[in-house]
Write a structure and sequence with these properties.
InterPro entries: ChlI/MoxR_AAA_lid, Nucleic_acid_metab_PIN/TRAM. This is magnesium chelatase. By secondary structure, this protein is an alpha/beta fold. It folds into three domains: 217 residues, Rossmann fold, CATH 3.40.50; 66 residues; 109 residues, Orthogonal Bundle (Helicase, Ruva Protein, domain 3). It has 15 helices and 13 strands. It starts with a helix and ends in a 5-residue tail after the last helix.
């Protein structure tokens, strides 16, 4: 019954929430892309997903060409009035060699994602720690050194400042948010479509899965918050109208001399107004349970010192799904199907690289992780195909027409350009899935 309730909640999640859930389940990290015009909404949606769906504290790290490593490190940290989620921050043995207590921690005031500058950060308080969810917007536009710092953060699960070491919390997720826009470039008289920008190869390969969010699918959490704000506005207006009627009645009573028996005095009107606010605002213990949002209002979301609201998917439930994924069975025919997909991807004429050993490991893990989300204890060919679409979407490197394999044997460049025209990672994956025989 408990597993059925969990599956019911999973079926209600959006595509973005499912991408985050799969990454948290595997303790890996992901890349999410969308058109440039939709990036602000996607970032806001990811923040709401972290707080409302998983009960985790997010931070947005805006990146650009002038972002420094110090800016990146400072933006990862959040000031907390409560202890670190995973306990005290681990310290390196070399910390004891510092000459003074002032050098033990750096301190900066909390940074706003929209107002962060490229100036060097000031000192960070000892209570600061790395946020549970790091949303790196436009990470592909950051300098190479910043991307390498992000790579070290994911590999070692900690960052080094000038005088301190900050370890990531136990529940940690890094989300790279990039634009999916492409551009047309001209090389040697030929025109071809290429990705606008890419992450450094090792960082890109370390990201567990890639997801492209279609703006037509909407942003579920943003829409729910907006609807909640509209309903709250209606309730407040109704309370104000009712209170106004009581005040009007009190004024009318005073004109008729009713105040002597305290029927319509000011205290009665104030008391009635208080009762109405309790009824409409549902502040009593008899108020109904919170909705999918957990009763998390906009004011509560904007206050950094408030407690994290109840999560839809708790940490315990994520651990349960991870345990179930480890017990998933893979038939030998399904495993052969998976390996054939990898081989066909490597041999595809449009692929120049990206089908790495790390990608193969992530491919197998994601196929296993998808099974519990569908109520299965075994991997099906359909789950393998779905995992291939998510694992290799951001990894596949397309070859230039002049470097296509058949050019070594005298193929015509114009013919190759015609064959590769309009071919992207999605087309390559679908071509391979159609070519590989599905086990019965």
């Amino acid at each position: 019954m408990e597993h059925e309730n969990l599956l019911r909640k999973i079926y209600d999640l959006s595509d973005v929430e499912l991408a985050l859930l799969l990454s948290l389940l595997a303790r890996e990290h992901c890349l999410i892309s969308t058109p440039t015009t939709e990036l602000p909404e996607l970032v806001e949606e990811l923040q709401l997903c972290a707080t409302r769906t998983f009960g985790l504290r997010p931070v947005v790290v805006p990146c650009h060409s002038r972002t420094t490593v110090e800016d990146f490190n400072a933006a990862l940290l959040v000031a907390a009035s409560s202890p670190h989620p995973s306990g005290h921050v681990r310290r390196s043995p070399t910390d004891s060699r510092l000459k003074s207590e002032q050098r033990h921690r750096l301190h900066v005031p909390p940074l706003s994602p929209l107002t962060m500058t490229t100036t060097a950060p000031t000192e960070l308080s000892a209570a600061s720690h790395i946020a549970n969810v790091v949303i790196a917007r436009d990470l592909d536009r950051a300098p190479r050194l910043v991307q390498i710092q992000a790579l070290e953060l994911l590999r070692t699960r900690r960052i080094f400042t000038r005088t301190a070491i900050y370890a990531v919390p136990k529940q940690f997720l890094f989300v790279a948010v990039v634009s999916s826009d492409s551009k047309v470039v001209e090389e040697a008289g030929t025109r071809r479509v290429v990705a606008a920008q890419r992450l450094v190869p090792h960082l890109n390969d370390l990201l567990y899965l890639g997801h492209w969010h279609d703006p037509e699918d909407g942003f579920a959490n943003i829409e729910e918050v907006e609807q909640s704000e509209v309903e709250e506005g209606k309730e407040e207006r109704e309370v104000e109208r009712t209170a106004q009627s009581f005040r009007s009645g009190a004024d009318e009573g005073q004109r008729h001399g009713w105040s002597d028996n305290n029927s319509w005095d000011a205290e009665s009107a104030a008391s009635s107004e208080s009762v109405l606010k309790t009824s409409y605002g549902q502040t009593t213990a008899d108020a109904p349970a919170p909705s999918r949002s957990g009763g998390f209002t906009t004011e509560e979301r904007d206050s950094p010192n408030d407690a994290v609201p109840p999560a839809i998917i708790t940490t315990a439930e994520i651990s349960t799904l991870a345990h179930l994924a480890e017990q998933v069975r893979v038939d030998v025919d399904v495993l052969r199907y998976q390996m054939n997909i990898v081989s066909f991807l490597r041999m595809h004429r449009a692929v120049a690289g990206g089908v790495t050993p790390t990608a193969t490991k992530h491919f197998e893990r994601l196929a296993r992780s998808l099974a519990p989300l569908h109520g299965l204890d075994f991997v099906t060919p359909a789950l393998v195909a779905l995992a291939a679409r998510k694992v290799y979407l951001h990894r596949i490197l397309l070859t230039a027409p002049e470097k296509e394999r058949s050019m070594q044997w005298g193929s015509d460049l114009a013919a190759i350009e015609a064959v590769l025209e309009g071919v992207g990672p999605e087309e390559v994956i679908e071509d391979v899935l159609e070519a590989v025989t599905v086990p019965v």
